[in-house]
Amino acid sequence: MTTIEAGGIRLNVERLSGAPTPAPGPPQTVVLVHGIATDNLTSYYFTIAPALAAAGHDVVMYDQRGHGRSSRPPRGYGVEDFSGDLDALLDALALEGPVHLIGNSFGGTVALAYALRRPERVAGILMLESEPPTAAWAKKMSGILAGSAHQLHDERTLPWIEETYGRHEARLVRWATRLLHGTSIAEDIGSCSVPAEESWQSLHVPVCAVYGATSDLADTAPWLESLLPRCRTLTVPGHGHSVLVGTPETVVPLLLDWLRDGHRELVTP
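Given the sequence above, the corresponding structure tokens read:
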């Protein structure tokens, strides 16, 4: 792992590359953007990142601000702050040419915001269980974060989580507690600047959005396809929000096809 300074924030970064297997297509640079609160780069490290590296791709993972081993400033958690970190990261790593962004949950929201901000630096986006940053999304997410922070004030919550879900999940929740109680993230998400809906029509970066068939977000797929000019959506039967962790064996070949075919064709799960 490497620590870099990006835009005044210390970001924890890991980069994987391996001897390519006989996978077709040229190697690509892929930047993996994780979700919010209980997530960090390890969710990729133990799911799709090794397979992408083994196929010859340059894989960049990083802990977003407030998460994992990156800096946790008390304020500055609007979507524009997270997408600014991504821009500074690409500068710090001196990555040449447009990169592919893969975003899980909130990570996909950050990837979309970044693509609208710097479309020339993005070759394509594949997002898993994600939404664009809209006013409705910001209000909903702020409420979820504030509710989670309130619930975690109850001293019975963490012991119950450990007993029910195990030590690993409890450790993730402890990290999330520090973020939710020690920063203004819920407030900042709720008041962050979001693009006007009509601005998304100007985003011509190709996007693939993957949803679990039983997820609450699955019904947004038709709207998303109408919102983004170059977007297609896929659903994974039998899975909800945790598509990445729940079925990496489905996600990996989909990603490899996406990178190989230049976003022209995708294999339906």
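The chain has one domain: 2-132+194-260. Try to locate this feature in the token string yourself.
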